[in-house]
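Quick sanity check, Hexosyltransferase:
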Amino acid sequence: MSNPLMSGFCLTAWRRISKMARKKVIFTSLLIFPSLVMFGLFIHMQDIDLGYFCLSCSGSYFHYKFDYNNKVFLKLPEVDCRQTPPFLVLLITTTYSQKEARMAIRKTWGKERVIQGKRVVAYFLLGQRENESAKEKVILAQESHIYKDIIQRDFIDTYYNLTIKTLMGIQWITHHCPQASYIMKTDSDMFVNTFYLVELLLRKNQTSNLFTGKLKLNDRPIRMPFSKWYISKREYAMARYPPFCSGTGYVFSIDVAQKIYNVSMRMPFFKLEDVYVGMCLERLKIPLQELHEHTTFFADKHPFSICAYRKIVTSHEVQPAEIGMYWEALRRSREEPC
Ligand SMILES: *[C@@H]1O[C@H](CO)[C@@H](O)[C@H](O)[C@H]1NC(C)=O
Ligand SMILES: *[C@@H]1O[C@H](CO)[C@@H](O)[C@H](O)[C@H]1NC(C)=O
Ligand SMILES: *[C@@H]1O[C@H](CO)[C@@H](O)[C@H](O)[C@H]1NC(C)=O
Ligand SMILES: *[C@@H]1O[C@H](CO)[C@@H](O)[C@H](O)[C@H]1NC(C)=O
Protein backbone atom coordinates (compact mmCIF):
# COMPACT_ATOMS: atom_id res chain seq x y z
CA MET A 1 0.00 0.00 0.00
CA SER A 2 1.68 3.17 -1.15
CA ASN A 3 -0.77 5.70 0.29
CA PRO A 4 0.45 6.54 3.84
CA LEU A 5 -2.96 7.85 4.89
CA MET A 6 -4.61 4.65 3.79
CA SER A 7 -2.05 2.36 5.43
CA GLY A 8 -2.26 4.42 8.63
CA PHE A 9 -6.00 3.96 8.61
CA CYS A 10 -5.72 0.21 8.14
CA LEU A 11 -3.20 -0.09 10.97
CA THR A 12 -5.47 1.83 13.37
CA ALA A 13 -8.46 -0.27 12.40
CA TRP A 14 -6.39 -3.42 12.89
CA ARG A 15 -5.34 -2.30 16.38
CA ARG A 16 -8.89 -1.45 17.32
CA ILE A 17 -10.35 -4.92 16.80
CA SER A 18 -9.98 -7.29 19.69
CA LYS A 19 -7.39 -10.03 19.91
CA MET A 20 -10.12 -12.63 19.44
CA ALA A 21 -11.40 -10.98 16.26
CA ARG A 22 -7.86 -10.74 14.93
CA LYS A 23 -7.40 -14.44 15.39
CA LYS A 24 -10.61 -15.01 13.45
CA VAL A 25 -9.42 -12.84 10.59
CA ILE A 26 -6.09 -14.67 10.41
CA PHE A 27 -7.81 -18.06 10.62
CA THR A 28 -10.27 -17.17 7.89
CA SER A 29 -7.52 -15.89 5.55
CA LEU A 30 -5.54 -19.06 6.19
CA LEU A 31 -8.62 -21.00 5.11
CA ILE A 32 -9.52 -18.86 2.13
CA PHE A 33 -6.06 -18.71 0.56
CA PRO A 34 -5.55 -22.48 0.11
CA SER A 35 -9.15 -22.79 -1.06
CA LEU A 36 -8.47 -20.23 -3.78
CA VAL A 37 -5.32 -22.09 -4.80
CA MET A 38 -7.22 -25.38 -4.87
CA PHE A 39 -9.98 -23.75 -6.94
CA GLY A 40 -7.41 -22.39 -9.40
CA LEU A 41 -5.76 -25.80 -9.67
CA PHE A 42 -9.14 -27.46 -10.20
CA ILE A 43 -10.01 -25.04 -13.01
CA HIS A 44 -6.62 -25.73 -14.58
CA MET A 45 -6.79 -29.54 -14.27
CA GLN A 46 -10.38 -29.82 -15.45
CA ASP A 47 -9.71 -27.39 -18.30
CA ILE A 48 -12.77 -25.37 -17.36
CA ASP A 49 -13.37 -22.25 -19.40
CA LEU A 50 -14.04 -19.25 -17.19
CA GLY A 51 -14.92 -17.27 -20.29
CA TYR A 52 -18.62 -17.83 -19.70
CA PHE A 53 -18.32 -15.30 -16.90
CA CYS A 54 -16.48 -12.83 -19.08
CA LEU A 55 -18.92 -10.40 -20.67
CA SER A 56 -16.40 -8.46 -22.74
CA CYS A 57 -14.63 -11.47 -24.29
CA SER A 58 -16.72 -11.69 -27.44
CA GLY A 59 -15.25 -14.24 -29.84
CA SER A 60 -16.66 -12.64 -32.98
CA TYR A 61 -14.05 -9.90 -32.63
CA PHE A 62 -11.35 -12.32 -33.77
CA HIS A 63 -12.86 -13.64 -36.95
CA TYR A 64 -11.04 -11.38 -39.41
CA LYS A 65 -9.27 -13.57 -41.91
CA PHE A 66 -6.23 -12.94 -44.04
CA ASP A 67 -7.22 -11.61 -47.46
CA TYR A 68 -5.38 -13.91 -49.89
CA ASN A 69 -6.79 -12.27 -53.01
CA ASN A 70 -5.44 -8.90 -52.02
CA LYS A 71 -1.82 -8.78 -53.22
CA VAL A 72 -1.44 -5.10 -52.41
CA PHE A 73 1.31 -4.15 -50.00
CA LEU A 74 1.43 -0.60 -48.67
CA LYS A 75 5.20 -0.81 -48.39
CA LEU A 76 7.69 -3.16 -49.97
CA PRO A 77 11.42 -3.38 -49.41
CA GLU A 78 13.86 -2.89 -52.23
CA VAL A 79 15.22 -6.34 -53.02
CA ASP A 80 15.99 -8.49 -55.96
CA CYS A 81 16.13 -12.00 -54.64
CA ARG A 82 16.56 -13.42 -58.15
CA GLN A 83 19.86 -11.67 -58.68
CA THR A 84 21.26 -12.12 -55.19
CA PRO A 85 19.34 -14.89 -53.41
CA PRO A 86 19.64 -14.53 -49.65
CA PHE A 87 20.54 -17.59 -47.60
CA LEU A 88 18.55 -16.38 -44.59
CA VAL A 89 15.72 -13.83 -44.44
CA LEU A 90 14.84 -12.47 -41.02
CA LEU A 91 11.22 -11.33 -40.79
CA ILE A 92 10.80 -9.21 -37.69
CA THR A 93 7.35 -8.32 -36.35
CA THR A 94 7.24 -4.75 -35.10
CA THR A 95 4.81 -1.86 -34.63
CA TYR A 96 4.95 1.81 -35.57
CA SER A 97 6.10 2.93 -32.12
CA GLN A 98 9.06 0.53 -31.93
CA LYS A 99 11.40 2.62 -34.04
CA GLU A 100 14.15 2.56 -31.42
CA ALA A 101 14.20 -1.25 -31.52
CA ARG A 102 14.21 -1.22 -35.33
CA MET A 103 17.18 1.16 -35.31
CA ALA A 104 19.09 -1.02 -32.83
CA ILE A 105 18.43 -4.14 -34.94
CA ARG A 106 19.46 -2.35 -38.18
CA LYS A 107 22.84 -1.61 -36.63
CA THR A 108 23.38 -5.06 -35.14
CA TRP A 109 21.89 -8.47 -35.91
CA GLY A 110 19.60 -7.17 -38.68
CA LYS A 111 22.35 -5.47 -40.64
CA GLU A 112 22.78 -7.01 -44.05
CA ARG A 113 25.95 -9.08 -44.08
CA VAL A 114 27.64 -12.17 -45.44
CA ILE A 115 28.38 -14.94 -42.94
CA GLN A 116 30.50 -17.89 -44.07
CA GLY A 117 29.75 -16.83 -47.63
CA LYS A 118 25.98 -16.70 -47.01
CA ARG A 119 23.87 -13.56 -47.32
CA VAL A 120 21.60 -12.59 -44.41
CA VAL A 121 18.94 -9.86 -44.76
CA ALA A 122 16.28 -8.49 -42.41
CA TYR A 123 12.85 -6.94 -43.00
CA PHE A 124 10.30 -5.51 -40.62
CA LEU A 125 6.63 -6.52 -40.70
CA LEU A 126 4.10 -3.80 -39.91
CA GLY A 127 0.38 -3.28 -39.98
CA GLN A 128 -1.34 0.08 -39.73
CA ARG A 129 -1.68 1.96 -36.51
CA GLU A 130 -5.32 2.45 -35.55
CA ASN A 131 -6.42 5.98 -36.52
CA GLU A 132 -2.98 6.67 -37.98
CA SER A 133 -2.46 10.40 -38.39
CA ALA A 134 -1.19 11.99 -41.59
CA LYS A 135 2.01 12.94 -39.79
CA GLU A 136 2.63 9.36 -38.65
CA LYS A 137 2.09 8.16 -42.23
CA VAL A 138 4.75 10.56 -43.47
CA ILE A 139 7.22 9.57 -40.73
CA LEU A 140 6.87 5.89 -41.55
CA ALA A 141 7.09 6.57 -45.29
CA GLN A 142 10.38 8.40 -44.68
CA GLU A 143 11.75 5.54 -42.59
CA SER A 144 10.77 3.08 -45.31
CA HIS A 145 12.35 5.30 -47.97
CA ILE A 146 15.65 5.53 -46.09
CA TYR A 147 16.09 1.92 -45.00
CA LYS A 148 13.98 0.10 -47.61
CA ASP A 149 13.30 -2.74 -45.22
CA ILE A 150 9.61 -2.37 -44.33
CA ILE A 151 6.84 -4.75 -45.38
CA GLN A 152 3.39 -3.36 -44.63
CA ARG A 153 -0.24 -4.18 -45.41
CA ASP A 154 -3.47 -2.49 -44.42
CA PHE A 155 -4.62 -4.39 -41.35
CA ILE A 156 -4.91 -2.86 -37.92
CA ASP A 157 -1.76 -3.45 -35.93
CA THR A 158 -2.84 -5.18 -32.72
CA TYR A 159 -1.51 -8.11 -30.76
CA TYR A 160 -4.41 -10.29 -31.86
CA ASN A 161 -3.62 -9.57 -35.50
CA LEU A 162 -0.18 -11.13 -35.19
CA THR A 163 -1.34 -14.13 -37.22
CA ILE A 164 -2.27 -11.74 -40.05
CA LYS A 165 1.13 -10.09 -39.76
CA THR A 166 2.96 -13.42 -39.90
CA LEU A 167 0.88 -14.58 -42.89
CA MET A 168 1.76 -11.30 -44.59
CA GLY A 169 5.45 -12.13 -44.11
CA ILE A 170 4.94 -15.63 -45.48
CA GLN A 171 2.95 -14.24 -48.42
CA TRP A 172 5.73 -11.78 -49.14
CA ILE A 173 8.44 -14.42 -49.10
CA THR A 174 6.50 -16.83 -51.33
CA HIS A 175 5.63 -14.12 -53.89
CA HIS A 176 8.61 -11.80 -53.75
CA CYS A 177 11.59 -13.82 -52.55
CA PRO A 178 11.15 -17.57 -53.16
CA GLN A 179 14.87 -17.80 -53.97
CA ALA A 180 15.79 -17.56 -50.26
CA SER A 181 16.89 -20.76 -48.50
CA TYR A 182 15.72 -20.16 -44.94
CA ILE A 183 13.35 -17.79 -43.15
CA MET A 184 13.34 -16.78 -39.53
CA LYS A 185 10.28 -15.15 -37.98
CA THR A 186 11.17 -13.22 -34.85
CA ASP A 187 10.26 -10.12 -32.79
CA SER A 188 11.83 -6.73 -32.21
CA ASP A 189 12.55 -7.35 -28.51
CA MET A 190 14.92 -10.18 -29.38
CA PHE A 191 18.63 -10.70 -29.58
CA VAL A 192 19.47 -13.01 -32.47
CA ASN A 193 22.97 -14.38 -32.94
CA THR A 194 22.86 -14.61 -36.72
CA PHE A 195 26.45 -15.86 -36.90
CA TYR A 196 25.68 -18.92 -34.81
CA LEU A 197 22.34 -19.46 -36.56
CA VAL A 198 24.00 -19.56 -40.01
CA GLU A 199 26.69 -21.90 -38.66
CA LEU A 200 24.05 -24.28 -37.26
CA LEU A 201 21.93 -24.18 -40.42
CA LEU A 202 24.96 -25.02 -42.54
CA ARG A 203 25.89 -27.82 -40.18
CA LYS A 204 22.33 -29.20 -40.21
CA ASN A 205 22.33 -29.08 -44.01
CA GLN A 206 18.60 -29.76 -44.36
CA THR A 207 17.17 -27.62 -47.12
CA SER A 208 13.58 -28.88 -47.08
CA ASN A 209 10.90 -29.71 -44.50
CA LEU A 210 12.92 -27.98 -41.80
CA PHE A 211 11.11 -26.24 -38.95
CA THR A 212 12.97 -25.40 -35.77
CA GLY A 213 13.04 -23.03 -32.80
CA LYS A 214 12.09 -23.20 -29.14
CA LEU A 215 9.88 -26.30 -29.14
CA LYS A 216 6.59 -26.29 -27.22
CA LEU A 217 5.39 -29.87 -27.31
CA ASN A 218 2.76 -29.98 -24.61
CA ASP A 219 1.17 -26.56 -24.09
CA ARG A 220 -2.42 -26.08 -22.94
CA PRO A 221 -4.77 -23.25 -23.88
CA ILE A 222 -5.10 -20.69 -21.09
CA ARG A 223 -8.73 -20.53 -19.95
CA MET A 224 -8.38 -17.56 -17.59
CA PRO A 225 -10.27 -14.67 -19.24
CA PHE A 226 -7.91 -11.95 -18.07
CA SER A 227 -4.81 -13.50 -19.55
CA LYS A 228 -3.30 -12.01 -22.71
CA TRP A 229 -3.34 -15.55 -24.15
CA TYR A 230 -6.89 -16.40 -23.10
CA ILE A 231 -8.57 -18.79 -25.52
CA SER A 232 -12.24 -19.70 -25.16
CA LYS A 233 -13.52 -23.19 -25.87
CA ARG A 234 -15.29 -21.74 -28.89
CA GLU A 235 -11.98 -20.68 -30.34
CA TYR A 236 -10.20 -23.91 -29.45
CA ALA A 237 -11.95 -26.83 -27.79
CA MET A 238 -9.17 -29.33 -27.21
CA ALA A 239 -7.17 -29.52 -23.98
CA ARG A 240 -3.77 -29.31 -25.65
CA TYR A 241 -2.25 -27.43 -28.55
CA PRO A 242 -0.44 -29.28 -31.32
CA PRO A 243 3.37 -29.02 -31.08
CA PHE A 244 4.56 -25.55 -32.05
CA CYS A 245 7.61 -23.32 -31.73
CA SER A 246 7.57 -20.20 -29.58
CA GLY A 247 6.79 -17.12 -31.68
CA THR A 248 9.86 -15.40 -30.21
CA GLY A 249 11.90 -17.01 -32.98
CA TYR A 250 11.46 -19.92 -35.35
CA VAL A 251 13.31 -20.89 -38.50
CA PHE A 252 12.11 -22.83 -41.53
CA SER A 253 13.18 -23.78 -45.03
CA ILE A 254 11.59 -21.97 -47.99
CA ASP A 255 9.45 -24.95 -49.07
CA VAL A 256 7.80 -24.90 -45.64
CA ALA A 257 6.87 -21.23 -46.16
CA GLN A 258 5.10 -22.13 -49.40
CA LYS A 259 3.35 -25.10 -47.81
CA ILE A 260 2.18 -23.06 -44.80
CA TYR A 261 0.86 -20.35 -47.11
CA ASN A 262 -1.09 -22.89 -49.16
CA VAL A 263 -2.52 -24.86 -46.27
CA SER A 264 -3.41 -21.72 -44.29
CA MET A 265 -6.12 -20.92 -46.83
CA ARG A 266 -7.95 -24.02 -45.70
CA MET A 267 -7.36 -23.55 -41.97
CA PRO A 268 -9.70 -21.90 -39.49
CA PHE A 269 -8.25 -18.66 -38.19
CA PHE A 270 -6.56 -18.65 -34.80
CA LYS A 271 -5.28 -15.51 -33.15
CA LEU A 272 -2.18 -16.92 -31.43
CA GLU A 273 0.29 -16.83 -34.28
CA ASP A 274 2.80 -19.43 -33.10
CA VAL A 275 0.08 -21.95 -32.24
CA TYR A 276 -1.57 -21.25 -35.60
CA VAL A 277 1.64 -22.08 -37.46
CA GLY A 278 1.86 -25.26 -35.33
CA MET A 279 -1.66 -26.18 -36.51
CA CYS A 280 -0.58 -25.70 -40.13
CA LEU A 281 2.49 -27.89 -39.59
CA GLU A 282 0.39 -30.60 -38.00
CA ARG A 283 -1.90 -30.60 -41.04
CA LEU A 284 1.17 -30.72 -43.30
CA LYS A 285 2.75 -33.49 -41.19
CA ILE A 286 5.99 -31.51 -40.92
CA PRO A 287 7.69 -32.44 -37.64
CA LEU A 288 9.43 -29.89 -35.42
CA GLN A 289 13.14 -30.40 -34.97
CA GLU A 290 15.88 -29.24 -32.66
CA LEU A 291 18.60 -27.31 -34.45
CA HIS A 292 21.26 -28.48 -32.02
CA GLU A 293 21.58 -31.02 -29.20
CA HIS A 294 22.02 -28.11 -26.77
CA THR A 295 19.29 -25.51 -26.22
CA THR A 296 20.01 -22.51 -28.41
CA PHE A 297 16.60 -20.80 -28.71
CA PHE A 298 15.52 -19.06 -25.51
CA ALA A 299 11.97 -17.74 -25.26
CA ASP A 300 12.93 -15.79 -22.14
CA LYS A 301 15.86 -13.55 -21.32
CA HIS A 302 19.10 -15.48 -21.17
CA PRO A 303 21.59 -13.82 -18.79
CA PHE A 304 24.28 -12.13 -20.82
CA SER A 305 27.84 -13.34 -20.96
CA ILE A 306 30.06 -13.39 -24.02
CA CYS A 307 30.61 -17.14 -23.89
CA ALA A 308 26.91 -17.91 -23.36
CA TYR A 309 25.77 -15.62 -26.17
CA ARG A 310 28.25 -17.09 -28.65
CA LYS A 311 26.35 -20.36 -28.39
CA ILE A 312 22.74 -19.20 -28.41
CA VAL A 313 20.46 -18.25 -31.30
CA THR A 314 17.77 -16.21 -29.50
CA SER A 315 17.23 -14.38 -26.23
CA HIS A 316 13.98 -12.55 -25.43
CA GLU A 317 13.01 -9.28 -23.71
CA VAL A 318 16.19 -7.49 -24.70
CA GLN A 319 16.00 -3.69 -24.69
CA PRO A 320 17.29 -1.72 -27.72
CA ALA A 321 20.26 -0.40 -25.70
CA GLU A 322 21.15 -3.92 -24.56
CA ILE A 323 21.00 -5.22 -28.14
CA GLY A 324 23.73 -2.72 -29.02
CA MET A 325 25.82 -3.50 -25.95
CA TYR A 326 25.66 -7.28 -26.36
CA TRP A 327 26.42 -7.10 -30.07
CA GLU A 328 29.42 -4.84 -29.53
CA ALA A 329 30.76 -7.04 -26.71
CA LEU A 330 30.51 -10.11 -28.96
CA ARG A 331 32.13 -8.30 -31.86
CA ARG A 332 35.06 -7.00 -29.84
CA SER A 333 35.85 -10.35 -28.25
CA ARG A 334 35.65 -12.41 -31.41
CA GLU A 335 39.27 -13.58 -31.25
CA GLU A 336 39.24 -14.44 -27.54
CA PRO A 337 38.76 -18.04 -26.42
CA CYS A 338 36.04 -19.08 -23.98
C1 LIG B 1 -10.21 5.68 -33.50
O1 LIG B 1 -11.22 6.55 -33.99
C2 LIG B 1 -12.54 6.12 -33.68
C3 LIG B 1 -13.54 7.04 -34.36
O2 LIG B 1 -13.03 8.33 -34.44
C4 LIG B 1 -12.71 6.06 -32.15
O3 LIG B 1 -14.00 5.60 -31.84
C5 LIG B 1 -11.66 5.13 -31.57
O4 LIG B 1 -11.74 5.13 -30.14
C6 LIG B 1 -10.25 5.54 -31.99
N1 LIG B 1 -9.31 4.52 -31.54
C7 LIG B 1 -8.16 4.82 -30.94
C8 LIG B 1 -7.31 3.68 -30.51
O5 LIG B 1 -7.80 5.95 -30.74
C1 LIG C 1 -7.26 -6.91 -37.49
O1 LIG C 1 -7.24 -6.11 -38.65
C2 LIG C 1 -8.49 -6.03 -39.31
C3 LIG C 1 -8.29 -5.29 -40.61
O2 LIG C 1 -7.77 -4.03 -40.41
C4 LIG C 1 -9.50 -5.34 -38.40
O3 LIG C 1 -10.76 -5.31 -39.04
C5 LIG C 1 -9.61 -6.15 -37.10
O4 LIG C 1 -10.43 -5.46 -36.20
C6 LIG C 1 -8.25 -6.34 -36.48
N1 LIG C 1 -8.38 -7.28 -35.39
C7 LIG C 1 -8.01 -7.00 -34.16
C8 LIG C 1 -8.22 -8.09 -33.16
O5 LIG C 1 -7.53 -5.95 -33.83
C1 LIG D 1 24.55 -31.60 -47.55
O1 LIG D 1 23.68 -32.62 -47.99
C2 LIG D 1 23.81 -32.93 -49.36
C3 LIG D 1 22.71 -33.90 -49.76
O2 LIG D 1 21.98 -34.34 -48.70
C4 LIG D 1 25.20 -33.49 -49.61
O3 LIG D 1 25.37 -33.79 -50.98
C5 LIG D 1 26.23 -32.45 -49.18
O4 LIG D 1 27.53 -32.97 -49.31
C6 LIG D 1 26.00 -32.02 -47.74
N1 LIG D 1 26.87 -30.91 -47.43
C7 LIG D 1 27.57 -30.82 -46.30
C8 LIG D 1 28.40 -29.59 -46.13
O5 LIG D 1 27.54 -31.67 -45.44
C1 LIG E 1 0.77 -23.93 -53.52
O1 LIG E 1 -0.36 -23.69 -54.34
C2 LIG E 1 -0.03 -23.21 -55.63
C3 LIG E 1 -1.31 -22.83 -56.35
O2 LIG E 1 -2.33 -23.71 -56.08
C4 LIG E 1 0.75 -24.29 -56.36
O3 LIG E 1 1.12 -23.83 -57.63
C5 LIG E 1 2.00 -24.61 -55.57
O4 LIG E 1 2.70 -25.69 -56.18
C6 LIG E 1 1.67 -24.98 -54.15
N1 LIG E 1 2.92 -25.08 -53.42
C7 LIG E 1 3.15 -25.98 -52.47
C8 LIG E 1 4.50 -25.98 -51.88
O5 LIG E 1 2.30 -26.76 -52.09
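Posting the structure with no commentary besides this: The chain has ten helices and nine strands.
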